[in-house]
Amino acid sequence: MNDNTYPWKQSEVIRHSQLLCHSFQHWTGDSLIDPNDNPVILSEKLFFAPFVVVSHGMESDPIFNYANQLALKLWQMNWEDFTRLPSRYSAEPIEQSEREAMLKKSLEQGLISNYRGLCTTSQGDRFFIEDGIIWTMLDEQNQCGQAAMFMHWTPIIDP
Known about the structure:
Blueprint: H1 11-28, H2 39-47, E1 52-56, E2 64-67, H3 69-75, H4 79-82, H5 96-109, E3 111-120, E4 126-139, E5 142-150, E6 152-156
Antiparallel strand pairs: 1-2, 1-5, 3-4, 4-5, 4-6
Helix pairs in contact: 1-2
């Protein structure tokens, strides 16, 4: 079994899925996935959820460290490539400064809701995120990254 074929089964991803869910509940009071699920089941449910979930770490140029199946499909990437991608490459170059300001605000406040932004896939296709939520991930040592979740997006069709 290739761990990258089944990322939700990796112990590191199972723990990360728990952090995603617990941090989301901390900031919103709502659950992404039933937090009482067995950790492996929670990880699998989050990976196959009917909404997009992505996260990145706290590096100076943050790298994506999680994407569920819907996110991988939307960005047209596999797990290995996505989890090596600096998260800034998911947004249009013209959107970079707005994205940076929004991420900074999210770190300061813990949560941003109603996020809207233009993204680019690995194949150059574009889509517009609507009603996104961005939250600060918390672990035992404090902030450990940022995550985003959204259910609605619109493909941008260039003429």
